Structure formats: C-alpha cells, structure tokens
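Tokens for Class I SAM-dependent RNA methyltransferase. Go.
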Amino acid sequence: MTKNFKMVAKTLFGMEELLAQELRQLGASSIEIGTRNVSFEGDTGFMYKANLCCRTAIKILKPITAFNIFTEEDLYKKIYEMPWENYMDVKGTLAVNATVFSEVFTHSQYISLKTKDAIVDRFRDREGVRPDVDLDHPTLRINVHIDRNICTVSLDSSGESLHKRGYKVESTLAPINEVLAAGIIMLSGWQGQCNFLDPMCGGGTMLTEAAMIACNIPPNLNREEFGFETWPDFDVDLYEKIEEAALSKVRDFPHKIFGFDTDSVAIKKAKENIKSANLQDFIEVKQQDFFESEKEHEKPLYIVFNPPYDERISVNDVESFYSSIGNTLKRGYPGTQAWMITSNMEALKFVGLHPSKKIKLFNGKLESKLVRYEMYEGSRKASKQ
C-alpha cells in the first residue's frame, strides 16, 4: 500500500463546504477548509479518484516541499536544489503556474519565469541539455504558491482545469463553467429525486451536470488526460481499478431532465454536447420560450438556471425580462423549487418574488447571487397547513 500524503483541492468561492463533503464521502482524511481550497490527505489511488470524481474541484495539487524565501535569489536557489529529475525526464516539457500573496514578491508571472529558469538550469548543468516549456500540454505542471515569505511548491495532478470535463464539443456565448454548474445544482439540494428543468439551457451544461449527479457518473470520465498520467510513477493498472470502482457505483435515474431555449442554434449545440456525454437517454431539450410554458406534470420539479446577462440581454429589457421570470413561475409552475444565479443584483427586484435563500458566488470574476424561490401549490398558507 502506498502511504498517505497531503493534497490541496482548489475550487470556486462558495464551493468549499461542498468540496469538503465530496472528499469526505470519497474517503479523504485530515480535511481542512480554506478560502477557495480544501486540504486533505490520501494515497496515490485517492489522488486519481479525487481527479476523476470531484464535481466541485478545479485542481488537485500535490505539495512536494515548502520553504522560506526573502529574495528572488532564495527562490532560484531553493528551486534549483530540488531533485527535478525524480519528477520528469529531460526530454519532457514543463509549465509553471504561480500565485503570489506577498509584499516582496508581487509579480506571479516573474515568479513563474524564475522557477522555470532554476529547473531548466539544473537539468542543463547536470545533463548538458534542458527540457522545453509547453504551456498547453506539458509533461509536468508545477504550481508555486507564495504567501508572504512561505513558498510552497506543488505538482499539479490535474493538468488542465477540472472544469474541462471533455464532453463539450460545441460552445455557446458566455457558457457557464461546469464546476459552477455542478456546485449550483448540489447547493440546491437536487440529487435526482424528481424532474429537473433548465428553462434557459444554452449549450446544456446545467443539464449535463444534473444528469451526471442523478446517475452518479464520475464528472471527469470523458476527459482525455489528467496531469498525473505523464508522471514517471503513473500506475495505469491502479487508475483503471479506481475508474472501474467509480463506474460500478453508477445508478439508474427514473425521472426526467428537460431543457428549453428560444435559440435553435443553442438547442442544436446542447444536443451535440449531451450526445458527446452519452446522456441523451436522460435529457430532453426543445426550442421553447419559458415565458410561454407551464409545468407539464403535478409531480415535484426543480428548476435551476442561469439567465442571460450582459452581452445577451440589453439593459432596457432587464426589467421586463426579470418580471417575466417571476410571472411565469407564479402562473405556470406551482409545486416547484426554482434556483437562479445572477450577477445583476438590481434585476432581482423585478422578479416580484421573495427569495427564501441567497448564496454569494462568483460567475467568473462577476460577484453573483444564487437565489431560491419556492412556488407552493395554492397559497403558501395552505401548503403550511
């Protein structure tokens, strides 16, 4: 058995508790919640499992050392002294990513460059040749984190960000990030217990994530590659066992997932993405104006959506658009829990409904609110009785 080591999973603001819960359910130990990250312990197999199965993680980092630095020379010297030949071959390629919270070191790009120089200089001094840099598909991705004077160096086991699930073959204007979509659905409490509707589905990200949650399908099953697959110690047999075990937990889903959009091009793209994820048996999309729709069944329904904003909706339309959301929910969707994310806080006033919950999130760099509206059958008072 391989021994446990510390790892750090990075996530979006507001998703930390969800990620900690996911890691706990997968079997991680020593879980500690930070801001936009969760640290935990596990073995190599768990590192593979976390990359494959965590819906709300963006990266899984494996810290390999930490040290104090006070000058750029300190950084160069300490990085140079590390045994990089244990982690990559000179014929391999590397990429360095840095995050910096320090008054002394203020430029993350410069820190990346200095780190890269130290690594390639070590190889050149020892072997007479140097590895190349490849920012897109490197053999080894290295993460440098400087907090005041403490520098932590980690290997990036994920490679490309884990929001890139691999099922998206068609992109729409301003698509929602897959990790954000999965997190919103999980925050709503929907786990596949009833029908699900995204009434403004765009390219179908929310629908696809909902289907994978309902069927307990590992979110990153469709990815072409993880960072750890190019590491010298990658154990392909162990990874295949982990994948097999995760797939054995896939479950059937007896309800339906629906998507509407007024744009026929968006519907076509959504269908392509859903097909790419092999989820067309669970998801139905059609060209439909939500404002002219109503609930088809008396059964409970979850509505989760990301209304268009900025470039997709002009400022003049905001008031009528958001009031139409409220009117449609009131008129056509009794017995429904409706969740909506928006970065337009003013627009929420026009919905004309009182949100029973508000959660602060970020959609890209935009501060947003995830709000819940509970649409009761008949009056609220009657439903209480």
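The longest helix spans residues 108-127.
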